[in-house]
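Input.
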Amino acid sequence: MIRYIIIITAIVLPFIIYYLLVRFTKKINKKFPIITLSSISLLLLIIALVYLRFTSVEPVGLKYIPPKFENNKVVPSQVK
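Output.
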């Protein structure tokens, strides 16, 4: 679940920061720079995905055995 929160935050955060800057300061033009914000959002998304890829916790030395059908019964998956 935390992975989804990190990814969604990486996508939405530049838009929220821009909205707050426009809302609380009157110095910024009211134009909505969609290309710039989307580029920053894409960059943050790539950084978040790379971070999640290298920090994911996977068991070391264990082997995943997928579910299989034996003797008319389904044997559930296992991690050994």
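The chain has one domain: 2-79.
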